[in-house]
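OP here, attaching both records as promised.
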Amino acid sequence: MKFSRNELKFAVRWAALGRNVPVGLADDLAKAAMELAAAGIDPLKNIVSALDQLDKHHRWGNMGDSVRLSVIEAGPVLSDSLVTGETVLPPNAVLDNPVLLVGYLCHSAISPPVKLGWRSRGSDCVLVVGESGLSSILGDGLETLHVETAVDLSYRPAVEPPALITAESIRQNRITTREHGVELSEADWHSLWRFTQQALSKSSKESRLSGAGASLVDID
């Protein structure tokens, strides 16, 4: 199914709010989803997985107390820390759905360039990020890119697999998605919308009287 990038941003933001993600992090996740789609990667399966793995009473802002981190919280922190040259994530931390880092790092200007990698089921994936943001994605296959389980993130991966997605293909996909929308899995869209509906309250007589929704008379 084809969706505009704004439709994707709306659905992801409200799905995150439906899972009690703080507003700022929900906005960051929505932007990351748009960037991931613009790079030619369907983000929905991994976003649904990341939201599904959140505990109902997740303690936001306590990353230092946990070895296993949600990429929804760690992604923006990692992006900021790489730009400033700080190391703020616990050295033994593992992340779920690491492909979402692509969306967070797309426009992170990092100098000197860094490589972030992970290994899953014997295969490797490496993100190359430099002064112009994400420049390429190296990997043994798409299945390693879309791993949902927690992985150990390496700042200096010892291996360098072949190019999976090049800088040129990312550039071309950004143009295509801006002009023609993004192709997304229908099944994953419905899974995401399940969370979105948790945040969108149904219209009622009381909510309309209190000012919710659009006015019946346009006086602007």
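Record two, same layout:
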Amino acid sequence: MSSNSMTRQGRVANRGTLSTTEKVGWAISGLLIAFLLVDGIMKLFKAETSIEGTIDLGYPESTVIWIGLTLVVCTVLYAIPRTAVLGAILLTGYFGGATATAARLEDPWLLFPIGIGVLVWVGLALRDAGSRTFLEQNLVRR
């Protein structure tokens, strides 16, 4: 048996178990996914708090559903392993807009969307070895 086929078999055998790093990544991502889906769905159903919050931020009520739909779609893409990188990129843009809105209003919660955006990438990097390798190669100086 060649070492190449043994490596493939080892990978297949390990697919069912997650490392501690992957478990932590999924825990972080899972909490974010739950939080973001609740927020997006509340906007889709035009919950009173979502409408009030959106208007307080200076956006018209007519944008609530579109903002909610955008958040739900980006979050679902982030939750699916095959499209998680695309979802993370789109969520980064979403939270960039939230950060810009908070900065414009001089909101003391300015760091909240920045922190959520960072956690999106931390969760992805911990749960996905390919993303982790890419980020290490491109962001970490050796």
